[in-house]
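Protocol check, entry for the methods section draft. Step 1: assemble the input record (protein sequence plus ligand SMILES). Step 2: submit for complex structure prediction. Step 3: store the structure tokens unaltered in the notebook. Ligand used here: zinc ion. Step 1 record:
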Amino acid sequence: MGVNFVGLVPSASFDNKVPECPHGPMLLFEKADDCGSKAGRQFYACAACRDRKQCAFFLWRDERLPAEKVRQWRQRAAGESRAASHRQRYDRARTILSGGGAQYCLTCTALVPASAAAEHRSHPTRPADTESARRPTQLLRPRACNKSSAQYLFSPDTVTVLDGVLGAAGVRRVLCCGTPRLHEHLLSAGQRDSLLLDLDERFEEFWPPETFSVYNMFNHHLISEEGHRAYREFVQRDGGRGLAVFVDPPFGARLEALALTLRTIADECGSQPAVFLVLPYFNEPDVLRNLPGLHMTDFRVEYDNHNKYTSAAGGRKFGSPVRLFASVAPQLVTLPEPTYRLCAPCGRWVHADNRHCDRCRSCTSKDGRPYRHCAPCGRCVKVTWQHCAACDRCALPDHPCAGQDRGVNRAVSAPTQPKRPAGHQPKKKPKRRRK
Ligand SMILES: [Zn+2]
Ligand SMILES: [Zn+2]
Ligand SMILES: [Zn+2]
Ligand SMILES: [Zn+2]
Ligand SMILES: [Zn+2]
Ligand SMILES: [Zn+2]
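Step 3, stored output:
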């Protein structure tokens, strides 16, 4: 039984407004019916937390709340928001840093002035000054506490390549959604302007509302009015020209909700911004279905603190499975040699290991492994697959085969079943490690 995303939908209980939890407007979902025939019951849930233990706000759509309950709900949602404003936190942090001898306390997740060091003696701390405060992702511990906000940071090499890609695409301003490392780099390099939108409120001590706002990309919710003003000014500058939106969503995220957010941003900026998105290669069909303007590039996105999504020792054998998706023309996505090469017939940059297939007229590897062309299938397949005469398609050697075990696989081989044009589709998606 699955759950389907419906959208941002007003509720009768809340004066025909979208109900809000401490994380902003809630999303409407529908529990799919067991047999999938009739529509299931709809409910509102938090857009930021998947786990009800982290955000207990929940409402059935057909449930009519009495006025008193609605009042309590609103009070609770407002009460859980923070005491100090972003501006106050930022100003206080500047004062602490300029005083010298400051520390960042990893237990209290706050900057601590030299005068208060004794109170944090038993806590792990890191020295902090105005210089190190420019790169908070190196000062803070990446969040790992829960599924919805686990934080993975681009490696320095990846950030450099991404900056080059943005430059080649003529981007002057980047709306960084969930990409603090890229934001940090863009601000210090000074070539492009950047505004970071991220769930992590710890950044409020390091960046003012002009360059950072607490934000949830799934309901397009900016937590403060000040942040909202900064966002509007940023996206609408120059009539929206030169703007790119760069998104690093949690893996396994609902792309329907993200697509809705990207359409809203385009509406609000007044022109279609360039869009960049990072997700594993096996999400390609899902990305193309929800965001048809994007194409998958061959760039392998690497993370500093993810042991699988790196080409470093101990990483995945065929490099990171995470790819950059882009809306700009493929030939503009220039990647560094010699790891990548320009494939002239394809007109795009591909990994040096990705071989061009004359018959498919494309560089066919998706997962980083070499592919080979299968003549009977009429397409390229993974080298680990073999053509099976009984199934009339390529598959892993130990696949459940129509030629061996007819009783079990009757449904697959029954003549009434339309034959797939080519190749086994992978039955199971590879495990998503992130969220
Ligand atoms: Zn919530
Ligand atoms: Zn402390
Ligand atoms: Zn090619
Ligand atoms: Zn081929
Ligand atoms: Zn084949
Ligand atoms: Zn077979």
